[in-house]
From TrEMBL:
<dbReference type="GO" id="GO:0005886">
    <property type="term" value="C:plasma membrane"/>
</dbReference>
<feature type="transmembrane region" description="Helical">
    <location>
        <begin position="103"/>
        <end position="126"/>
    </location>
</feature>
<feature type="transmembrane region" description="Helical">
    <location>
        <begin position="185"/>
        <end position="204"/>
    </location>
</feature>
<feature type="transmembrane region" description="Helical">
    <location>
        <begin position="211"/>
        <end position="231"/>
    </location>
</feature>
<keyword id="KW-1003">Cell membrane</keyword>
<keyword id="KW-0808">Transferase</keyword>
<feature type="transmembrane region" description="Helical">
    <location>
        <begin position="251"/>
        <end position="269"/>
    </location>
</feature>
<comment type="function">
    <text>Catalyzes the transfer of the diacylglyceryl group from phosphatidylglycerol to the sulfhydryl group of the N-terminal cysteine of a prolipoprotein, the first step in the formation of mature lipoproteins.</text>
</comment>
<keyword id="KW-1133">Transmembrane helix</keyword>
<keyword id="KW-0812">Transmembrane</keyword>
<comment type="similarity">
    <text>Belongs to the Lgt family.</text>
</comment>
<comment type="pathway">
    <text>Protein modification; lipoprotein biosynthesis (diacylglyceryl transfer).</text>
</comment>
<protein>
    <recommendedName>
        <fullName>Phosphatidylglycerol--prolipoprotein diacylglyceryl transferase</fullName>
        <ecNumber>2.5.1.145</ecNumber>
    </recommendedName>
</protein>
<dbReference type="InterPro" id="IPR001640">
    <property type="entry name" value="Lgt"/>
</dbReference>
<keyword id="KW-0449">Lipoprotein</keyword>
<keyword id="KW-0472">Membrane</keyword>
<feature type="binding site">
    <location>
        <position position="152"/>
    </location>
    <ligand>
        <name>a 1,2-diacyl-sn-glycero-3-phospho-(1'-sn-glycerol)</name>
    </ligand>
</feature>
Length: 275
């Protein structure tokens, strides 16, 4: 009988501690992804001859938009009853217990909320810097998938957002979720986002002057959330109430982003149609 080569995945989630604060691999990978995306965007700004002073503050806008949006998105989309009754824990990386205050880090970030937060923060950025909003979104969108790739690798290190039970030969066993083999859904997403990044950057290099602003923004939304919609079918529910839903929360939240992305991709081709 063929023996399945399941991978037992149970790494240490804590990289090191400093001044009593524990730094997890998730945090390191999250920041690494943002730094790589920031570097890619700096190259795009340079290629487009956008002054550096307009680029200098972009990282702060992106970081605040993503982290605040992702945190609030998780709290309001998935566990509103708990978080609305513990509002300080929504905004602070701690948990209040009978024994005092416990440092937890931000355990719970939703990509859909992060996307909304990023869109809003970039609107303020574009207004302040007097840049075309869609052009700003395009540059961010080209780099976003590489950040998303590292965030999902961080989820893999945490052993969270796991897949459903599976007997595929490459299934992972996440001991914190039990000893049954599961789809490594986080790894699927990380690989998909890396491919989306490579294709998007290649499209920019080839067609950067022949498409209206908004194409790469639409491409990023459409590809990421189409994949997210389908991969949810093999992911375990994040909350128990999702088990009774026709589509889970991640899928329902993905649909508007797919439609918005398709809209912008379609309209970016209009000049070519009218020639």
């Amino acid at each position: 009988m063929h023996q399945l080569l399941h991978i037992v995945w149970n790494p240490e989630i804590e990289a090191f501690s400093i001044f009593g604060i524990t730094i997890r691999y998730y945090s390191i990978l999250f920041v690494t992804g943002l730094i790589l995306a920031y570097w890619v965007i700096s190259k795009l700004y340079k290629d487009q001859k956008i002054p550096y002073e307009k680029f200098d503050s972009l990282f702060i806008y992106c970081l605040l938009g993503i982290v605040v949006g992702a945190r609030l998105g998780h709290c309001l989309f998935y566990e509103p009853s708990y978080w609305l009754s513990h509002p300080l824990e929504m905004i602070l990386p701690v948990k209040f217990t009978d024994g005092g205050i416990k440092w937890t880090g931000y355990q719970g970030l939703a990509s859909h909320g992060g996307t909304i937060g990023l869109l809003l923060s970039l609107w303020f950025y574009a207004r302040k810097m007097k840049l075309n909003y869609l052009s700003v979104l395009d540059n961010i969108a080209i780099a976003t998938p590489i950040a998303a790739c590292f965030i999902r690798l961080g989820n893999l290190m945490n052993g969270e957002i796991v897949g459903k039970l599976s007997n595929v030969p490459w299934a992972f066993i996440f001991p914190r979720e039990g000893m049954e083999p599961r789809h490594p859904a986080q790894l699927y997403e990380a690989i998909a986002y890396l491919i989306i990044f490579v294709i998007g950057l290649s499209l920019y290099k080839k067609y950067k002057t022949s498409l209206l602003p908004g194409f790469y923004f639409g491409y990023c939304l459409t590809t990421i959330f189409v994949f997210r919609f389908f991969v949810e079918f093999i992911k375990a529910s994040q909350e128990a109430y999702e088990d009774s839903m026709m589509l889970n929360m991640g899928q329902w939240l993905s649909i508007p982003f797919i439609l918005i992305g398709a809209h912008f991709m379609y309209h970016s081709f209009k000049p070519a149609k009218n020639k």
